Recover the amino acids of this structure.
C-alpha cells in the first residue's frame, strides 16, 4: 500500500514540473473554464484514487462554491450594496490585470465594511442556509471516522469561522486570510478595515499547497486529500509538500480546467460518501479472548455510524458439540459462548460460522485469535484465498520454533498469506474486557495506515488502544509474559509474599527484554513499559489462568501430592492447553539451541520446575536452580499424574536459604 | 574521597616521569638493596594511604618472597640439582648483563625439567609448607570483604596455580609466565620445555603494571593495591594505569630500595589486617522498615568475619511508652519491637538507644530510616556533629516541597550534614524481609566507593542488592510509587479486575517517569525497570499499607458510609501517617506551582479523590477526573469522618462508561 502512495507523490512531483512549465496556466484556464466541455475519464475513480480516499487521514475543503453554494465575499459585497462593482473587479482579476493579492485588496476597499456590518451580514446569511448539498453529511461521516477535516479558503477567516463552527471544525483547522483593522478615530474602536495579513499562506499564490504543507509539518498524516471547485484548489497536488489527492467538485461551479486535471471529479458529495471504504471484518477464533475481542469489534461495527464497517462481523468457530448441540448454533441463538465465555452476552451482529473460508470470504480485516498451536493449520487453509488488499492483526500469544530460528505468529501470517499483519497486545484478561472494565492495549504495527483502521476496530470507551511502531516487541511481550506468570503462580502457591513476587516479576521482565532484543535487535525498550509489557505482565501474574494453574501445581507439591501440568490442564482448563507451558518449552528449545540457558536463569528454572526436574520452591532461588546440572540430579522425564516426583537436590528451609 | 584517589593517581604519573628519567634505576637499586639501611618514615601509613587501603576493591600480591617464603623457580632448581648454577645466573641478571626475559630463559634451560618433575616437585613442596606468616589470614579476610585478590608473579604459572588454589584464588586471577612445551619424540608427549610465552605481560619489563592495567580494563575497580617485596612490584605504581597504592613487604626479603619508595612498608601481614577498616553503623529510626533493615544490618555485622563492621549496631528509637514501659528497654530486653514489628526477633547485637547523638557518635555509616516528616528535625540535631569521613544512606521515601523546588531526602542529608548520601530503594515490604523471603533492592549512588560499603551492609542471601548510578531516580521511584499504590487500592476497593489495575499502574509508572525526569533530567529511564521501580510498584500496589487504607477508603464510599483518610490512619495504622497521602499532597503542590496538573491526570485525580473532591471510581476515568473544574463541582474542603461527601459530577454506571 505504501508503494501506491509513493507513486501518487511521484505524480505530484511531475505535476510541479508541469505547473512550472506553463506559468500562465492559471489565468488562461480560468477564462476558458465556464463554457468548454472537455471529454472526461475521471468521473469514475481509479483503484489508486480510491485507495488514497479510503486511507485519508486529513481532508481539506475549499470553502466558497465548495462547502457553500456561493462566495462569501461576493455575497458580502452584495449585502453592502457594491455587488456590481466587485463583480467587475473580479472580472479584471480574471483578465490577469491584477494579482490574487491585489484583487482581494481592491475588493475589500470597495466593500469598505465595519465589524458590525460583518456581524449583521452573517446573521442575515447563516452558513446553514448556504451549505452545498451533501457537505454536512460528508463532513460528519469523515469526522466519525476520525478523519481530520480542514477548511482552506482564499476568502476571509472572519466569514469562514461561522461555517466551520456549524460543521464542528475547530478554529485551528481553518486556514484563510485575516482582515487587518485599525483604530478608528471616530468610533474609537479598531473598526477601520485597512487590508489583510499577507503573512497567511492563503494570501499568496499557491497558498493552498502551502497551507497543507503547514498542516503536514504539524501532524504525521500519511494521506491528505484536497477537495474544491477551483484552480487554486487543484494547485494543492501540483506543488510538492501539498496534498496526495485532489478531488474536483462541480456541484456549484463546474470548471473545465479543474475537471480536466482533477484526480477524481464529482458533481455530488454523495458520490464521495458512497465510495467510502466499508470494511468487512472476520474474527478467526472463538475462545474466551476471541469472544471478548469480537464483542468489542461487533459493538464498534454497529455503533460506527460512518459506515466504515459492515455491521455483520463473522466469527469462525471450530465446530464442536456442546450439551448435545452444535456450538455455532448455540452462539447464534443465545448470543453467548457458553463454553468459553459463559455469562457474557454477545452482540447480535456477531455471527458464528463453522466454515473458515466462508468467514474470510470478502473480508478486508482478518483478526487472528485462535489457540496458537492451530494457527499454522488455519493459515494453510487460507493461503491464496484471502481478498486482495486484505490485512490482518494477530491477538495470539505464542511463537513457533523452527530449525532456522523462531517465528512470531504475525510473521507466519505475513509469510503464509502475503499480507501485512499488525498485533494487538495488552493487559487483557477476557473476563475483565467482557465486563467492560477499564483496559488498555497497544497495536504494534509496521504499516501505520492499517494500524489506524484496526484502532477503530478495537478502541472502545473502556478499551484504550495505543499505536506503537514495534510489532515484534509487543508480540514478544505478549508471548513471554506467560512464562513469568507461571513463576508468579509458583510464588503465590508456595505462600511467599509480595517482595518475592515483585522480585521474580522484575527478573522476568528483565529476561523478557534481554531475550527479545537479542532475537530482534530492532525491538524498542520503551515497549516493555507499555500496556503490552509491564501492565500485561502484572495483570497476567495476578489474574490469568497460567498463574492459576501454577498456583495449584506449587500447592500440590507443597502438600506432598504433586500433580502434573497435564492433569491440571484437564481438570482446571476444560481441556484447553496452558499457553505458558507451551511457550516455556518453545523458548527453552531456542535457549538450548543457542547455548543461552544460563543467561536466562528464571526462564530456565521455570522450565525445569514445569518438567518436575526441580522443586517449585526454586522459583525464589532461580540462579541456583538454573545452575544445577540436571542430568546428575534428577530424572529428566516428565511426570505422569500420580507419579511421585523425583526428588530435586535437598532444599534448605526457606528462612535460612 | 575521590579527590584523595586522584591525588594518588597524580602521584603515579609523577612517578612515571621519575622512572623514565632514571632508566637504569631497576638494576642499580637491586644491587644496593640488601645491605643498606635507609631512614624510614613509611612504616606508619598516612591517612591517604589508609583511605586507599580501606576502599581497595582489588589487592594484587607478588608471589615469590611475598606470598611464599621462597622463590619457586630457585626451589625447583635446587630440587632438580642445579641450585648453584641457577644462583650464579641470577647474580648475572642482577649485574645487568642479562635482561629479565633472558635471565628467565637461561634459568629454564639450566633447570631443564619434564612435566613429571614439576608434579613431583610440587608434591614435595606443597604451598601450605611455604606460605609467609599471616598471608592466609590476610587473603581470607580480604576475600570475605569481597575484595578481589590477584597473584601477579614474575615466575611461572605452573608453579603458582597450586598456591592460588590453596588461597581460594580463581585461575583467572593469576598472572604469571607460561612455559612453552614441545612434542618430545621420545616420550611422544609435549614434554620438552623450550622456553616461555613472551606475550604474557609478566614476561616483559614493567610487566606488573601492565598486568594491573589489563585487570583494570576488564573491571571497574576504583582502587587497586599492589603488595610485594621487589622492585618489579614497586613498578606497579610507577607506571600509569597500574596500581593506586604499593605496599612493600619485608617479612621475607627486606630490600632497601623497595622500603625507600613504598607508599607503606610492613614487616608483617598482621599489620595490614589490623589496619583494615572497621565501620561503626548507626540506624536512625525504629519503625517496621527500620527494624527489618536494622535486623539485616546487625546480622551482617555479626556474620562478616572480616572485621569490617563493629558487631554492635546502634539503633535510634524515638522513646515512647509501650505497655507502661520504655520502648527502648523492651526492645533491648526482648530483642523485638513489639509496637512496630511485632513477632520478629531482632539480633542481640542490635542495641536500641533513645539518645540520637549517642547513637551517631563515632558512627561511620549513618542509615536514615525515620518517618520522612521527622528527618529535618533529626538532621538539625546532627548538623556539625557527625564523625569526620562518615557517609550516609537513606531508606526514606518522600520528598520535601520548598519554595525553590522539591528536595529529596538524600539531598537534604547531603546539604545539612555535608556528607555523601546514597539511597536504598526496592520492593521491600518490612514483613516479607523480616520473614527472610527473597527480596531485592537497589542502592542508588553518587559515590561508588560508599555504595560498595553499603552493599556489604545490606546484602543478605535473601536480600539481593544491586548498585545503580542514579540516586535521584531510585529515590523518586520509591517516593512516587506510594501515590500509585493509593490508586491501586481504590481499584481493588471498588472491585475492578486485573486489567484495570494493570492499566492504572502502567499509567502511574508512566507519570512517575515523566515527572521524575522533568524535575531531574539526569535520571535514567532504566531505573524504572529496576527493583526500585516496577518491582517496588508491584509490591506496594499489592501488599503495602497505602493500598490497604485506600481499599478501605474506596469500600467505605461504595458502601455509602465514606470515611476520611485521617480516620482510617487512626484506626488502621496505629496512628502512623500514610506516606502516599503526604506524598500526593507534596507532589500536587509542585504540579500546581508549575502549572503541570493536567499533564499528570492520574496523580491529579488521586489527589482529588483523597480530598473527597471526586468519587473514588474516577480512578478508572482519571483523564476525565483531572479535567473537571473542581471549584465548579464540589466543595474543596476536606471531609471530616462521618460527614457526607459532596457529590461529585454524576457518574455513569461502570459498564456503560
Amino acid at each position: 500500500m505504501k508503494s501506491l502512495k509513493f507513486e501518487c507523490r511521484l505524480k505530484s512531483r511531475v505535476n510541479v514540473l508541469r505547473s512550472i512549465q506553463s506559468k500562465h496556466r492559471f489565468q488562461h484556464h480560468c477564462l476558458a473554464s465556464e463554457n468548454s466541455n472537455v471529454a472526461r475519464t475521471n468521473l469514475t475513480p481509479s483503484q489508486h484514487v480510491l485507495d488514497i480516499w479510503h486511507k485519508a487521514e486529513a481532508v481539506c475543503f475549499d470553502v466558497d462554491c465548495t462547502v457553500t453554494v456561493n462566495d462569501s465575499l461576493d455575497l458580502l459585497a452584495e449585502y453592502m450594496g457594491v455587488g456590481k462593482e466587485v463583480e467587475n473587479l473580479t472580472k479584471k482579476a480574471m483578465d490577469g490585470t491584477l494579482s490574487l493579492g491585489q484583487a482581494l485588496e481592491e475588493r475589500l476597499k470597495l466593500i469598505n465594511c465595519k465589524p458590525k456590518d460583518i456581524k449583521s451580514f452573517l446573521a442575515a446569511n447563516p452558513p446553514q442556509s448556504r451549505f452545498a448539498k451533501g457537505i454536512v453529511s460528508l463532513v460528519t461521516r469523515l469526522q466519525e471516522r476520525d478523519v481530520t477535516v480542514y477548511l482552506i479558503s482564499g476568502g476571509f477567516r472572519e466569514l469562514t469561522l461561522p461555517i466551520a463552527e456549524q460543521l464542528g471544525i475547530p478554529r485551528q483547522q481553518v486556514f484563510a486570510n485575516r482582515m487587518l483593522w485599525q483604530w478608528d478615530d471616530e468610533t474609537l474602536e479598531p473598526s477601520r478595515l485597512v487590508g489583510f495579513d499577507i503573512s497567511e499562506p492563503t494570501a499568496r499564490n499557491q497558498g493552498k499547497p502551502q497551507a497543507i504543507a503547514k498542516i503536514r509539518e504539524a501532524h504525521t498524516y500519511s494521506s491528505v486529500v484536497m477537495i474544491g471547485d477551483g484552480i487554486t484548489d487543484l494547485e494543492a497536488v501540483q506543488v510538492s509538500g501539498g496534498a496526495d489527492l485532489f478531488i474536483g467538485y462541480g456541484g456549484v461551479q463546474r470548471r473545465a480546467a479543474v475537471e480536466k486535471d482533477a484526480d477524481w471529479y464529482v458533481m455530488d458529495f454523495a458520490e464521495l460518501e458512497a465510495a467510502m471504504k466499508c470494511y468487512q471484518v472476520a474474527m478467526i477464533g472463538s475462545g474466551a479472548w476471541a469472544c471478548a475481542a469480537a464483542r468489542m469489534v461487533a459493538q464498534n461495527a454497529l455503533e460506527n455510524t460512518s459506515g466504515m464497517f459492515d455491521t455483520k462481523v463473522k466469527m469462525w468457530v471450530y465446530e464442536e458439540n456442546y450439551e448435545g448441540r452444535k456450538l455455532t448454533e448455540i452462539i447464534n441463538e443465545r448470543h453467548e459462548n457458553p463454553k468459553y465465555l459463559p455469562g457474557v452476552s454477545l452482540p447480535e451482529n456477531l455471527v458464528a460460522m463453522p466454515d473458515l473460508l466462508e468467514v474470510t470470504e470478502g473480508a478486508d480485516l482478518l483478526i487472528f485469535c485462535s489457540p496458537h498451536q492451530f494457527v499454522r493449520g488455519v493459515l494453510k487453509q487460507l493461503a491464496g484465498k484471502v481478498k486482495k488488499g486484505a490485512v490482518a492483526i494477530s491477538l495470539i500469544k505464542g511463537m513457533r520454533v523452527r530449525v532456522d530460528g523462531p517465528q512470531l505468529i504475525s510473521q507466519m501470517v505475513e509469510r503464509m498469506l502475503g499480507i501485512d499483519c499488525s498485533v494487538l497486545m495488552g493487559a487483557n484478561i477476557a473476563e475483565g474486557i467482557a465486563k467492560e472494565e477499564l483496559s488498555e492495549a497497544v497495536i504494534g504495527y509496521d504499516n501505520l495506515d492499517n494500524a489506524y483502521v484496526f484502532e477503530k476496530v478495537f478502541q472502545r470507551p473502556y478499551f484504550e488502544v495505543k499505536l506503537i511502531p514495534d510489532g515484534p516487541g509487543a508480540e514478544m511481550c505478549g508471548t513471554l509474559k506467560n512464562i513469568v506468570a507461571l513463576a508468579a503462580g509458583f510464588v503465590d502457591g508456595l505462600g511467599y509474599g509480595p517482595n518475592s513476587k515483585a522480585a521474580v516479576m522484575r527478573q522476568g521482565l528483565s529476561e523478557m527484554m534481554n531475550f527479545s532484543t537479542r532475537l530482534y535487535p530492532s525491538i524498542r525498550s520503551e515497549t516493555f513499559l507499555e500496556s503490552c509489557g509491564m501492565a500485561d505482565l502484572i495483570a497476567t501474574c495476578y489474574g490469568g489462568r497460567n498463574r492459576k494453574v501454577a498456583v495449584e501445581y506449587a500447592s500440590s507439591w507443597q502438600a506432598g501430592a504433586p500433580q502434573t501440568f497435564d492433569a491440571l490442564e484437564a481438570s482446571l482448563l476444560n481441556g484447553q492447553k496452558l499457553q505458558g507451558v507451551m511457550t516455556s518449552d518453545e523458548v527453552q528449545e531456542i535457549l538450548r539451541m543457542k547455548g543461552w540457558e544460563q543467561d536466562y536463569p528464571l526462564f530456565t528454572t521455570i522450565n525445569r520446575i514445569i518438567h518436575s526436574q526441580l522443586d517449585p520452591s526454586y522459583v525464589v532461588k532461580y540462579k541456583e536452580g538454573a545452575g544445577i546440572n540436571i542430568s546428575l540430579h534428577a530424572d529428566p522425564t516428565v511426570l505422569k499424574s500420580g507419579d511421585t516426583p523425583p526428588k530435586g537436590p535437598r532444599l534448605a528451609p526457606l528462612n535460612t536459604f
